Prior knowledge:
Helix content is 48%, strand content 11%.
Amino acid sequence: xxxxxxxxxxxxxxxxxxxxxxxxxxxxxxxxxxxxxxxxxxxxxxxxxxxxxxxxxxxxxxxxxxxxxxxxxxxxxxxxxxxxxxxxxxxxxxxxxxxxxxxxxxxxxxxxxxxxxxxxxxxxxxxxxxxxxxxxxxxxxxxxxxxxxxxxxxxxxxxxxxxxxxxxxxxxxxxxxxxxxxxxxxxxxxxxxxxxxxxxxxxxxxxxxxxxxxxxxxxxxxxxxxxxxxx
Length: 231
């Protein structure tokens, strides 16, 4: 696989609790491992700048998203995280090949037949969707272990072994989805790609030097073209 360039994944989703942070990190590592490092995740939780203003944080995350080759969106929760939805729409504006993964077994609030979320976040091109019942998978893996006392399970770390296996099942589904979405070509022409990435320099209202922002997105467009992601 040495001749295959690694593609960067912007890993979008909740990062507010220790469960979010730990789960994101474990899934990102499993995706890298199972893809032979073809897919390497950029975790926004690792990019945090505690002294930044709210707009600086937003700008930093959006620019990192636009620089990435691919994007992964966690659509968990009874209601989708609003920041993740904004990042998803930005990715679609930029024609970034994307995967949506939902591991929440709750049906959520949805008005689209096949997806448990609002239909306005559905049907965009170059997007693969994986809806996974993580609880059922966890329980099925758990059944493979002989029933013992709870204290013995903790000592033997069986719960963490089950959790690690669950993460790898989800990671494999994500890797397979990225493999599929990469087979979908961009619908933009070269001129349209130039125009779209030029407009994205201005549309979000980024703070800072405009020439610097333009250079970041010019470099991003060049990288994506070199990898055959955009015309």
